[in-house]
Design a protein that fits this description.
By secondary structure, the protein is an alpha+beta fold. The chain is built from seven helices and 20 strands.
C-alpha cells in the first residue's frame, strides 16, 4: 500500500463509519488527513501514479459508504481549514465547515450564508454539488474556486465558467476536486442575521430527524413536486428495513436506528424508488452519493 510522505494524520485499517454522518461502512485500508493543498495534491498524485483507488471525503454528510469497506485510500479534507477574510469576501480551503463559516459570517455582520447554518458539510463539497437549503444556494455566492483537474493541474475557475444546477455543477461533471473557494457576501444587520439563523435551526430541529444518524435528503425533489410528499403518499413513513428507517419526521430522510447497514439503506432506497414509480409514474433520483 502506498504511504504518502506527508505530515498529516494517517490511519491504517480505519472504520468508515467514523467518517460519515450515517455512521455506516466497513474498514478502509488507509485513511489520510492532508493538512493543506500541497499535501492533498501529493496524496492524489501518488495514488494515481500507483493505480491505487482513492475516495475523497469531507464530513461524509451526503454519502453512503459500503459495508465491505474500501480497498484503497480515503482522503479526508477536514484538516484543510485555513480561512482568509477580505472585506465582503471570504476565501477558505475545501475542508472548512460550512456551518462554522455561516456562523462566523453572521457574527461579522455579513449576510448570504444564513441558509447554510445547519448544513453539516464542508465548503469544498458544498461548492461542488451546489448545496442549498431554504431557497439559498452556495453557487449564488461563489466568486471563484481553485481546483485540481482530472489531469492533475491546479486551476482557478471564475464563477462565469461554472454551471451551477440543482445539487450539481460543472465541477462535478469535469471531475474537478475543489481545493479552495472564494465567496462574495454582503453587509447585513448582525442581530437580524443571527435571528434568521436561529429560526432556521429551530425549523430544522422541528422537521428533521437530527436525533438519529442520517445523510440529509436522500432523493432529489422532482420538478414541481416534493420527494418527501411522494414517499409519504406511497405509505413509507416510519417503515423500516432492519435498523434503516424512513423518518417519521421527514420522509425524504432515512435514519440509522442503531446498526443499519449500507445494504439495508440501499435496498430501502431501491424499493421506495420502485414503489413511487409504479404509483405515480415518477422516478426518484438520489441526492446522496453511493460508493
Amino acid at each position: 500500500m502506498y504511504l504518502p510522505n506527508i505530515k498529516g494524520r494517517i490511519e491504517k485499517d480505519y472504520p468508515l463509519k467514523k467518517l460519515n454522518t450515517w455512521r455506516i461502512g466497513g474498514m478502509t485500508e488507509l485513511a489520510v488527513w492532508p493538512r493543506d493543498t500541497e499535501e492533498l495534491v501529493s496524496v492524489i498524485d501518488g495514488c494515481r501514479k500507483n493505480n491505487i483507488p482513492f475516495l475523497l471525503l469531507g464530513r461524509g454528510s451526503n454519502v453512503l459508504l459500503p459495508d465491505h469497506g474500501f480497498k484503497g485510500v480515503v482522503i479526508v479534507v477536514t484538516a484543510m481549514d485555513s480561512i482568509r477574510w477580505h472585506g465582503e469576501e471570504v476565501t477558505a480551503e475545501a475542508g472548512y465547515p460550512l456551518m462554522r463559516l455561516a456562523r462566523e459570517a453572521g457574527e461579522s455582520g455579513l449576510s448570504g450564508l444564513e441558509f447554510a447554518c445547519g448544513i453539516p458539510g464542508t465548503l469544498g463539497a458544498a461548492a461542488a454539488i451546489n448545496a442549498g437549503a431554504y431557497g439559498g444556494k452556495i453557487g449564488d455566492l461563489v466568486k471563484k474556486v481553485s481546483v485540481l483537474t482530472a489531469e492533475g493541474k491546479i486551476e482557478i475557475i471564475p464563477k462565469n465558467q461554472i454551471a451551477f444546477g440543482y445539487r450539481s455543477s460543472s465541477l462535478l461533471e469535469k471531475e474537478c476536486i475543489v481545493l479552495e473557494c472564494t465567496l462574495s457576501l454582503h453587509p447585513g444587520d448582525q442581530a437580524v442575521i443571527q435571528a434568521q439563523m436561529q429560526g432556521l435551526m429551530a425549523k430544522r430541529k422541528e422537521h428533521q430527524p437530527l436525533e438519529y444518524p442520517n445523510a440529509g435528503s436522500v432523493f432529489r425533489n422532482p420538478v414541481g413536486d416534493s420527494a418527501g410528499r411522494l414517499i409519504e403518499q406511497a405509505g413509507w413513513k416510519g417503515r423500516r428495513l432492519g435498523d434503516a428507517q424512513v423518518s417519521e419526521k421527514h420522509t425524504n430522510f432515512i435514519v440509522n436506528r442503531g446498526n443499519a447497514s449500507s445494504t439495508d439503506i440501499l435496498t430501502l432506497i431501491q424499493v421506495i424508488q420502485t414503489d413511487v414509480s409504479e404509483k405515480f409514474d415518477i422516478q426518484l433520483e438520489t441526492e446522496i452519493r453511493v460508493i
